[in-house]
Amino acid sequence: MKAEEKIALEAHDLSVGYDGKPVLWGIDLQVPVGSLTGVIGPNGAGKSTFIKAIMGLTPTMSGYVRLFNKKLDDVRKQIAYVPQKEAVDWDFPISVTELVMMGRFPHMGWMKRPTKKDREVVEETLEKMKISDLSTKQIGQLSGGQQQRAFIARALAQEASIYLLDEPFAGVDANSEKVIINLLKEQVKEGKTAIVVHHDLNAVNTYFDRLILLNLRLVANGPTDEVFRTDYLKETFGGELSLLAEMSELLRKRDIKQKK
Amino acid sequence: MIELLAEFFSFNDAYLNYTIFGLIFLSIAAALIGCFTYVRRESLISDAASHAMLPGIVIAFLFSQQKSIVFILPGAIISSSLALYAIDYLTYHTKLKKDGAIAVVLSLFFGIGIFLFSLADRVTPATSIAGLDSFLFGNAAAMLPEDFYIITLTALFILLVVILLKTNWIAISFDPLYCQSIGMPYKRLTFLLKLALILAIVVGIQAVGVILIAALIISPAAIAHFIKPRMSFMLITSSIIGAFAGIGGAFISFVSPKMPTGPWIVLIPIFIASFAFLLAVPNGYFYRLWTANKRQFQVVKDHVLKAFYAYHEKEFITNVSRVQLVKQTGDESWMIKLAIWSLKSQSFIEKSGTDCYQLTEKGKTLSKSIVRRHRLWETYLVQCLRIKHDHVHDDAEYMEHLIDDQIENKLIQLLNRPSHDPHGSLIPY
Q1: Do B175 and A91 touch (CB under 8 A)?
Q2: CATH code at B386?
Q3: Which of B239, B268, B283 is the last residue of a domain?
Q4: Using a CB-CB distance cutoff of 8 angstroms, which residues of chain A are in contact with residue B171?
Q5: Which of A172, B231, B241, B254 could cross-link with B220 by S-S, CB 3.0 to 4.6 Å?
Q6: Taking the complete model, does pTM exceed 0.90, yes or no?
Q7: B234/A112 Cβ within 8 A
Q8: In the A/B pair of chains, how many CB contacts fall below 8 A?
Q9: With the C-alpha atoms ordered B71, B76, B77, B78, is the resulting torsion angle positive or negative?
Q10: What is the pLDDT of residues B297-328, one digit of tens each?
Q11: Are B169 and B190 found together in one domain?
Q12: What's the pLDDT score for residue B9?
């Protein structure tokens, strides 16, 4: 990493777990401002947990996270999170506009009354994600790809500096995938940072300029052309880490709690 | 009956007014909170919360030897909160899933309640226990001015927090992870929502009873959701339904003061629900029946126009009799008569003899476009999807009614404006 690059995200000796049982072990990494970073790893590698830990949504057992060299609570407004699509109930009785308006909450007072500017920003983001014509629809009436675009529109409406996306391309049609990746690239060009959990190795080297390879611990972190190598991938997806996984399982079974 | 109604709605009796407005207010409060409970899929939790009030009520009664709401209220709130906490604890710390935890807690608390209830029955003099069973099935006739004031205050409080926190509550109910990520006070908001639920239940138990009050909470929201699944609409509509339920309950307790009011108050929303299921637009039964018939009617009209085209194409006949139209379309239902009449009144066809018709210029254009769309679709299926040409007719037979200008243009572009369909018939442009 070049010295003059500004750091968007820094994780230092970060261990994350539920109920005293670790899911991620000792993560040390830095992500520079203005990068589009993919988080890659097999199922159960702790990719989503990593994203949640950045925002303090999971209890950390050791270490810390810093964003723009500041504590999380000082920069919360700057983080736009896009949860996994399955995390919410799409039958919920709200419209697309109401969903995207949630992205303006950090800019509103506690009663959440939208101003004219909030409405304008929401309209613009709907336009950007090409879902303006769906704005009054109940969110369940959208296709999978449109739902994901609405979700990302909400993050966009937040006007944040760093985007954390959890599997934005899962269950999404080709057209939506194109809209989403183009938008991310455009945002990064404007100096924003994006960290994206990605479920497969397809298109990894065309989508992301940096990669974080993760499997319970950090395997590699760096520019895609340096890190996207067979040996690292083998280490991430292969069996070399099975001992660590086995120990995690053992901890869970024996109900042993690690000290915080 | 009419005299009773007149007397009821004269609002002359102060005590009766307490009952009427008390019931209306508590039903509205229940309905408002119910909207959130319903969309959070926590209907059963509200049921557990209400059943779990019984032990608290009886214990409060045993200590105070009074049925006054002032003593009963804290008892009910405490035992209900304990139950909600127990559900959360069991779900989080054991292998029990949420539905299992709810069932366990509900039956445990209610069982203890019934046990204490029969105990209270034995140890206290019959005069003071009388009426305690109104907490089981509800009795609005027993409502006192002090009950009314507590209900009104609580209902106003609930209305206020719903107005203030509506957007926040909707957000945390829909996407808790996101709300936490932007730093909303998620825990405090959830706590307030649960508190409001318990308050809504607790002021209703004397009038509706612990067993049925969950229905008063959930059913107005469920009906409103069926009519239109939007939160703002649901909040208003469910309040109106709740108010009706309240008035109905008050009337029953006025006509027959000894009858438990709970079942009646609960039956009224269900009565309204059956109307909604029949009459709602666009989800109700009749509306759907009507649109299905309308669509079917459009299909018949299209087929009549196509029949004109077929006679002209095959036999160069332009004057077609009704008998021929029935023969060509194969449709002998009442709709065909109506279709001919409708096409004539829209001047797609005109009379050209006794019981004979011919296409107008407008009709010619339309019939051509239906045939064109039919044949374009057949061509598309054969050329692009490689379906055998003798398998495409039936599919095209209903697609022709759905294809609009935009799709037609796409088809023409895609197929490079074909001149003939797969059966060799000319495609008319």
Answers
A1: no
A2: 1.10.60.10
A3: B283
A4: 102, 105, 112
A5: B241
A6: no
A7: no
A8: 67
A9: positive
A10: 999 999 999 999 999 988 888 888 888 888 88
A11: yes
A12: 84
Tell me which residue in A81, A91, A111 faces B178 most closely, judged by beta carbons. Answer: A81
For residue B370, what are the domain limits? 364-415
Tell me how many degrees the CA angle A214-A219-A223 measures, rounded to the nearest 5.
90
Mind listing the pLDDT tens digit for each residue in B236-287?
Answer: 999 999 999 999 988 888 888 888 888 888 899 989 999 999 998 888 999 9
**Contacts B174 to A, Cβ<8 Å:** 88-89, 92, 94, 99, 102
Assess if residue A234 is contained within a domain: yes
Residue of B nearest to A154 (CA): B178
Q: What is the arithmetic mean of pLDDT over A131-142?
A: 95
- A113 found inside a domain: yes
Q: Which residues of A touch B175 (CB under 8 A)?
A: 83, 87-88, 102
For residue B11, give the 3-state DSSP assignment.
coil
**Domain shared by B340 and B291, yes or no:** yes
**Of A76, A89, A154, Cβ closest to residue B183:** A76
In SS3 terms, B73-84 reads as HHHHHHHHHHHH
Distance set, CA B224 to CA A95, A206, B60, B233, B302 (Å): 16, 48, 36, 7, 38
Q: Count structural domains, chain A.
A: 1
Domain that holds residue A205: 7-254
Last residue of a domain, one of B234, B252, B283: B283
Enumerate the residues of chain A whose CB falls inside 8 A of the CB of residue B180.
55, 57
Q: Give SS3 for A22.
A: strand
With respect to residue B429, please indicate whether it lies within any of the assigned structural domains.
no
d(CA A227, CA A232): 7
CB contact B39 to A (< 8 Å): yes
Chain A residues inside the 8 Å CB shell of B162:
none
The count of domains in chain B is 3
CATH code for the domain of A183: 3.40.50.300
- Dump pLDDT digits (tens) for B149-173: 999 999 999 999 999 999 999 999 9
Q: How many CB atoms lie within 10 A of CB B96?
A: 17
Question: How crowded is residue B65: how many other Cβ atoms within 10 Å of its Cβ?
Answer: 12
Asked if the Cβ–Cβ distance from A92 to B174 is below 8 Å, we say yes
Going by their DSSP bridges, the two strands B320-321 and B356-359 should be labelled as antiparallel
**Residue B139 to residue B132: CA distance in whole angstroms:** 10
Residue A2 domain-assigned (yes or no)? no
d(CA A29, CA A44): 20
**How far apart (Å, rounded) are the C-alpha atoms in residues A154 and A191?**
19
Is A189 within a domain? yes
DSSP conformational letter for B141? G
Of A57, A94, A112, Cβ closest to residue B180? A57
Name which of A82, A86, A88, A137 to mutate to probe chain B: the one with the most chain B Cβ atoms within 10 A of its Cβ: A88
Cβ–Cβ contact A132 with B under 8 A: no
**CA A134/CA A17 separation, integer angstroms:** 40
Domain containing residue B277: CATH number: 1.10.3470.10
A213 vs A203: CA distance, rounded Å? 15
Q: Cβ of B167 and A83 within 8 Å?
A: no
Task: For residue B388, tell me if it sits in a domain.
Answer: yes
User: Both B345 and B406 in a single domain?
Assistant: no
| Predicted pLDDT of residue B125 | 67
B183 and chain A: CB distance < 8 Å anywhere? yes
Domain presence at residue B202: yes
Residue B266 lies in a domain: yes
Contact call for residues A103 and A154 (beta carbons, < 8 A): yes
